[in-house]
Amino acid sequence: MQDEEIDIEELPPSKSQLKRDAHAVQTLGTELLEVPESTWQALRLPDDLIAALKEAKRVPSRGARKRQLQYIGKLMRDVNPEPIQHYFEQLRLETRHQARKHHLLEDWRDRMIAEADAAIEEFLESHPRADRQHLRQLVRQAKKEHAAGKPPKSSRALFRYIRDYS
Q: Residue 108 CB: number of other CB atoms within 10 A?
């Protein structure tokens, strides 16, 4: 007997790995149900997969839906998952970007209410088209509402105004 080196890359994937891969594409197929049907066409999915996705949206029964999702997973094995994964990755990045932008706007609003003129001046330096008088009025009203324990109507209006100028 000779000592032969075994190249791991030449070995076929394990049964467990095949199951993990099948489950991953089935999950990806399930995620496709959450996006608009126009996206399916944009992703250039096969017609039989699109028909299966439409059927899964229509099926009300839990057991039938589970079988349909398994069928979608089977069809997904023949589809290149990279463009679909890329689409969902871009969608998640866009969602994170929107959340970050929303938080920055909230920070501006909170700073303006807390610091008043200093924060307003700083905002106006980076957004010269904004109306200083209107900003001050909104901040003053937001402070009054907060002090009186009223609903934050002016605070919301201030947020919308900042959002429109950012």
A: 22
User: What pTM did the predictor assign?
Assistant: 0.67
Q: Are 84 and 33 contacting, i.e. CB atoms less than 8 angstroms apart?
A: no
Per-residue pLDDT tens digits for 68-87: 999 999 999 888 989 999 99
What b-and-e string marks burial along 15-42, b requiring 16 or more CB atoms within 10 Å of the CB? eeeeeeeeeebbebbeebbebeeeebee
The tens digit of pLDDT for each residue in 27-58 reads 898 899 999 999 999 999 999 999 999 999 99
Burial (0-12, 13-18, 19+ Cβ within 10 Å), 68: buried
